[in-house]
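Good morning C.,

I know you're traveling, so I'll keep this short. The sequence:
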Amino acid sequence: MNEIWQIFLGSLMVAFSGALVPGPMLTLVVTSVAQRGFWTSFFIVVGHSILELAVVVSFYLGVLKYLNNPIVLKVISALGGAFLIYMGVNILVSIFRKKIKLNLDTASDKNRIDGKNTFIIVGKGILISLANPYWYVWWLSIGAAFMIKSVKFSFAGVSSFYVGHIIADFIWYLFIGFIISSGRRFFNQKVYIGILIACSLFLLYLGVKFIVDFFGI
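The tokens, ready to paste straight into the viewer:
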């Protein structure tokens, strides 16, 4: 049970670290909430989570069989760990160079979402993920490494990985949706940078741990 919780918490923190960095998904949430209101952020993440559920299921049912080789496992672990370290360093460097800024310009909330365009917004959540090259790199490195560790604990391990990953996305993007729809008085750049620093340090720790655990250093 302790290992299941470790998988869950590790997945949660890594997903937070990826979601916090501004990218296509954040841009879509910001612009969509500004145009149609808070609930667009929810349905965008629903689309994103559907796509990632398909990836996790495909990994669990068959794709990982082709990766079940000691050499392949070590390569994936090295890539996953190295990419985590790269992400952590990149975030810290970007913060130091003041390249990361969260733009939460608010807009009027007059075009609210209705039932007719719910599926369109869910579709946008899927498409924005597919259009992001970083998404593919993440799943072929970090995601695959996590899945290899998770399948050792069967359905419980894989479920804890997926739930932790998706909960982080929902928490962060719904939070952004709330901030945009209500104003920025609850959140500012300093708080955002503080969260990013904490997440980047965790990425560095987890990246080193991945490499050490799988290579027995």
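Safe travels,
E.
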